[in-house]
Write a structure and sequence with these properties.
Helix content is 11%, strand content 41%. It is mostly beta strands. The longest helix has 8 residues.
């Protein structure tokens, strides 16, 4: 079990100096406990996370800089700097950087579930289909693709 410790995760640094390359996106872990996990994410231009569901976790995105297009359930929308996106467990969601600029955001999920193990496993994995297959073992279920133009 992971126990929270009093400390500061400094800017541009991840816990224990770690960052993950998740299909070209950079995830930097900022907080990890059994109750939640938080990571800073950088989405380069034209990167995305396909539609998926977390059956046992609520997920959130606080937009630090830029704009992403989103699929939240059946709704297409977008979020910009300062917005908070709420994605309750069991609701399909996806994110697309169609903005022409890199986007940064703070993500977190509660409870942490198996996300830490998933990110460690898929770090530097180059095949999207392999990432989607492996994710099922970590309670993230990818859905059939939709158009990147939200």
């Amino acid at each position: 079990m992971i126990t929270e410790t009093p400390d500061i995760t400094r800017t541009q640094r991840g816990i224990d100096g770690v960052s993950w390359n998740i299909l070209g996106q950079v995830y930097v872990p900022k907080q990890i406990s059994a109750d939640s996990i938080a990571w800073h994410a950088t989405f380069p231009v034209e990167t995305f996370v396909p539609p998926h569901v977390h059956p046992h976790q609520d997920e959130y995105i606080f937009m630090l800089d830029g704009q992403i297009d989103l699929l939240l359930g059946d709704n297409k929308t977008s979020a910009s700097t300062g917005d908070l996106v709420r994605m309750p467990r069991g609701i399909p969601h996806a994110f697309f950087n169609n903005s022409g600029k890199p986007v940064t955001a703070l993500f977190w999920a509660s409870p942490a579930g198996k996300l830490l193990s998933l990110y460690r496993r898929i770090h530097n994995m180059s095949s999207p289909s392999e990432v989607m297959r492996v994710a099922r073992d970590y309670e993230v279920v990818f859905l059939p693709p939709v158009s990147a133009a939200a």
